[in-house]
Amino acid sequence: MDKEMLQHMTSMHKGWRGMLKSKHYKGKTSEDVVKFVPPGVDPSDWRTMCEKWNTREEQDIAERNKQNNAHRNMTYRQGKCIYIN
Questions:
Q1: For a tag site, which of 39, 47, 63, 66 has the least CB within 10 Å?
Q2: Per-residue pLDDT of the chain (85 residues; tens, 9 = 90+)
Q3: In this structure, what DSSP letter does residue 39 have?
Q4: Degrees to nearest 5, angle at CA 44 with 41 and 46
Q5: Segments in 1-85 forming alpha helices (H)
Q6: What is the top-level taxon of the source organism (predicted)?
Q7: Distance between first and last Cα of the chain
């Protein structure tokens, strides 16, 4: 149970970081990004995340992901699940 909870929390944290990156980081200069800290984020944590995203390794990973996503031939369909008690 603890391992499952840790995996779930890790997944949620990655999703949160991804949302912050797409909403507040992409398309801006690194100086502008560091100046504006999103609400609810510690300024030192934000600076650390921005420095990490600005590394060559992270940029290479992002570029590779863009290329891989361009090859998708199946449309994404968001489904809804209804639980009946």
A1: 39
A2: 688 888 888 888 788 888 888 788 877 777 778 788 888 888 888 888 888 888 899 889 888 988 888 887 766 666 666 656 5
A3: T
A4: 50
A5: 2-24, 30-35, 43-53, 56-70
A6: Eukaryota
A7: 23
